[in-house]
Automatic annotation (TrEMBL):
PANTHER family hit by this protein: ASPARTATE KINASE, ASPARTOKINASE 3
UniProt pathway annotation: Amino-acid biosynthesis; L-threonine biosynthesis; L-threonine from L-aspartate: step 1/5; Amino-acid biosynthesis; L-methionine biosynthesis via de novo pathway; L-homoserine from L-aspartate: step 1/3; Amino-acid biosynthesis; L-lysine biosynthesis via DAP pathway; (S)-tetrahydrodipicolinate from L-aspartate: step 1/4
Function (record text): Catalyzes the phosphorylation of the beta-carboxyl group of aspartic acid with ATP to yield 4-phospho-L-aspartate, which is involved in the branched biosynthetic pathway leading to the biosynthesis of amino acids threonine, isoleucine and methionine.
Protein name as catalogued: Aspartokinase
Family: Belongs to the aspartokinase family.
Enzyme Commission number(s) of this protein: 2.7.2.4
Occurrences of domain ACT (ranges): 389-456
TM ranges: none
């Protein structure tokens, strides 16, 4: 059995839904279909999820949400019209949307999640209706009925282990299951969404639950490329990746797969295949537990901006018992999670997502660290980008770090920080955000320019 997830770009128009239908029906093993909300039709377009968020924020601020709701409805109506679908499906969607938008606003986060979830929920109903119209035994399944139980974290929910047993019953379902991605329910029956792009996570959860032979993730590119295609033209395609490599790359900016989507697949040992809805003949990228090492030490280079660092220095901190605990408890008190902690004998740097500092009084936090840790120096650096150079082969190859550092030096990029060693498969460089693109290009040229094939 295969679980197949289609992203928003694969479901943006009627013509896209026809491709989705052909893909699903071309392989009898494709039994569970996870759908996103309609995505962008072109670069300038808006995703349904973004329109829903805008409508919710307007309603919360006492402004009129209806212009956005009407745009959302128009998206579904256009798809239904393209496919000559009966008007009843649009009426069903309209009633559902109006009930949500007119619902209780007293908990803004809850209200927003109810609206956000409607994007995939209504699209799953629409896709099921279309498949039925084409004569296929396909049915919409609600995540609450199926038992997709998640944690109480609005916009950042996590699946709970007890969900898997009930979700396993989806394997027994007659016909094709059309399942909305991106959200689940708490034990008490309240809607909670995953973080953005979380339909990838739903697909992986279902693949784990039904012990699928394969989790296929259909998107709008032929493969995972060795570098973000908006940074380098026609980058090399990756044929095969390990779970560890893909996790590092998606964490660090390969948005083609949600960074948390691999975890359920890894736990159940299910291979993941990235495929292109617009070119299903292309082989795509396979993500597996182990791969043969080919074509050098590095398989991909990812980067993401939006980080900052807190640098703390104190002589002999290596001898001070409890220094780390005190520093991290200050972060905990301020509700901050961290990403990396490169350290030296007298200093430690904590790298975190800059967004978390938005509601902080930085000066106060610096003073708190200085006084509670008796630190010699504390400072915060903003606007950093993290670059991750990833490859299983790196560990056994001498000189990879030297090549990377040399390429960055040649491109006149100052390395703010290096972290190597804590991960088996990656090296991390922090650079200023303004240098990000130049740095990635330099690294790509160093590690990939001499590889002749289009595929690594
Ligand atoms: N290394 C990469 N390889 C392939 N695609 C990438 C990479 N990094 C970023 N992307 C982007 O990810 C996009 C696909 O992900 P996403 O927009 O979430 O698709 P979907 O609508 O299918 O969920 C691609 O169109 C591409 O722009
Ligand atoms: N629609 C949601 C969830 C999702 O997974 O979408 P997509 O498959 O288009 O990335 C979002 O935009 O975040």
């Amino acid at each position: 059995m295969k679980v197949v997830k289609f992203g928003g770009s694969s479901l943006a128009t009627g013509a896209q839904l026809e491709k989705v239908f052909d893909i699903v029906t071309s392989d009898m093993d494709r039994k569970i279909v996870v759908v996103s909300a309609p995505g962008k039709r072109d670069q300038e377009d808006e995703k349904v999820t973004d329109l829903l968020i805008a409508s919710g924020l307007h309603a919360i601020n006492g402004e009129d949400p209806l212009p956005f709701i009407n745009q959302v409805l128009k998206r579904y109506r256009d798809i239904a019209k393209d496919l000559n679908m009966p008007p009843t499906i649009i009426e069903t969607i309209k009633q559902d949307l109006m009930a949500r938008v007119e619902g209780d606003h007293s908990d803004p986060e809850q209200y927003l999640d109810v609206l956000k979830a409607s994007g995939e929920d209504n699209n799953a109903k629409l896709v099921a209706c279309y498949f039925q119209m084409r004569g296929l035994a396909a049915n919409y399944v609600n995540p609450k009925d199926a038992g997709l139980i998640v944690s109480h974290e609005h916009g950042n929910a996590q699946v709970l282990p007890e969900a898997y047993m009930r979700l396993a019953l989806l394997a027994e379902f007659e016909g094709i299951v059309i399942f909305p991605g991106f959200f689940g329910y708490s034990q008490e029956g309240e809607v909670f969404t995953f973080s953005r792009s979380g339909s990838d996570v739903t697909g992986a959860i279902l693949a784990h639950a039904v012990k699928a032979d394969l989790y296929e993730n259909y998107t709008d590119v032929d493969a995972v490329f060795s570098v973000n295609p908006s940074f380098v033209e026609h980058p090399k395609e990756i044929k095969e990746l390990t779970y560890r490599e893909m996790r590092e790359l998606s964490y660090a900016g390969f948005t083609v797969l949600h960074e948390e989507a691999l975890i359920p697949a890894i736990k159940a040992g299910i291979p993941v295949q990235i495929k292109n809805t617009n070119n299903p003949e292309a082989k795509g990228t396979r993500i597996v537990n182990a791969r043969d090492n080919t074509n050098g030490p590095v398989v991909g280079i990812a980067s993401a901006g939006g980080f900052c660092s807190i640098y703390v220095s104190k002589y002999l901190l290596n001898r001070e018992i409890g220094f780390g605990r005190k520093l991290f408890s200050i972060l905990e008190q301020n509700g901050i999670s961290y990403e990396h902690t490169p350290s030296g004998i007298d200093d430690v740097t904590v790298i975190l997502r800059e967004q978390q500092m938005e509601n902080q009084n930085e000066e106060e936090m610096v003073k708190q660290i200085e006084s509670e840790l008796q630190a010699d120096e504390v400072n915060i650096q903003h606007s950093l980008a993290l670059i991750m150079v990833v490859g299983e082969g790196m560990r056994h190859n001498v000189g990879t770090m030297a090549r990377a550092a040399n390429a960055l030096a040649q491109a006149e990029v100052n390395i703010e920080m290096i972290n190597q060693g804590s991960s088996e498969v990656s090296m991390m460089f922090a650079v200023k955000e303004v240098d990000e693109k130049r740095a990635v290009k330099a690294l790509y040229n160093e590690f990939f320019a001499s590889i002749p094939a289009m595929t690594v």
